[in-house]
Structure formats: structure tokens, C-alpha cells
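Per-residue structure
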Amino acid sequence: MIDLQNVTKSYATGVQALNGITLHVDKGEFVFIVGDSGSGKSTLIKLLLKELEPTSGSIKVNGINLNKMKSKAIPKYRRKLGVVFQDFRLLKDRNVYENIAFAQRVIATPSKDIRKNVPKMLSLVGLAEKYKSFPKQLSGGEQQRVALARALVNRPNILLADEPTGNLDPKNSREIMKLLETINERGTTVLVVTHNQEIVDQMKKRVVVMHKGVIVSDERKAGYKQNAD
């Protein structure tokens, strides 16, 4: 599903963000990536999104070798990933329905399918009645739910969440994590980058700890259940 072999990333400034990391994530896993600022978490996500190229090492996602991917293939590859950020990145001039529908329109989904898919996603994230609302009319937690619905509407088999609770209060943070867990239980592989140690401690998931560009710990918590391929 996700396979990094001896991946190094050095920037032109001389900073080495990743130093020979090897990481394998199986289909259906839920994995937390944690670590201090500067540990390499964000660089890892950018490499998986093909926003950056590794200095050395290999990266495969869904059986695709990212090292050999041509530029023209990147947009199509990214559309098969679900991505959620802490700043939501919603289109401010479009309502909730249109924000989610937009993700389908860019891949030319037929209108009749969009009309079926968007309400399903809104029901999944508990916002069925907010479809006409604009982002500024929603709370932070609701905006993140819209972002999740948008990330999931194209049925990605991998969801990357970069600090998804970073701008939320504890209650909303727990609700978003519960949603991510539900999404994972439906078969989506989930990677969550977070600073929220309380949430990590509460959830019995695999936890990968990074420090100064290396993986220093990779643990499955008590009660963790390995999903089958």
C-alpha cells in the first residue's frame, strides 16, 4: 500500500529533513505519525503527495513507483488520495454542497452521480442539513467535516490527514478522530500526522515516532488490531 525504502530528503539549504527512513503501511491500517517540529513529518507527507522528490531511496504507493512517475501523471495520482489539512482549504465562495461536488467535477463525474454521492458524504460526516451553508457560517469542526467529506467523495483507498485537529478544540478534535476511525473501519488506509499526544494516547493505533529525520519508534498499542490485506 505505502512503502518507503531508505528515503532521504535534503533541501538546497543543506537541511536534511529525512535520513534514510524505511516505512511500510499495509492496506487498511490506521497509523499516527508523530514528532516534534522539524522531525520530518511534513516532508514525509509532501513526498507521498509527490510535492517533493526524494534525494535518494524509493517510494511506492498503491503499487506505483513515485520515483518514476512523470509530471503529467501527478494530478491523476493525487486524485486517488484523500487529503485533509488543518486549515481546511475550503472554497470560501462556494457552499458546502459545491465544495464537495467540486472534487467530483474535476474528475468529470457525471452530474447524476454527483447528486447521489454528495448527500451520502454529508450524511457520513453529520452535515446533511448544512449543504447550503458557506464555510464562514460553519464552526471549525464543521469546516473540517466538510474537508473530510470532500477528501472522501472520490472513494480514495488512502487518506492523508496533516494535523487535522490542529485548529480545533478538544471536543471537536475527538469527533474528527472518531470520524477518521469510522472511515478506516470501512476499509480506507489512514495516515494521521499530529502533535496531539492526548488523542494518540486515547486511540489504540500504530504510532510511528520521528525525530530529526529518522524513525525512532514504531509501536502498535495494546488493543491494536492488524487489518488483513
Remarks:
- The chain has a mean pLDDT of 91.
- The first helix runs from residue 41 to 48.
- The chain has seven helices and ten strands.
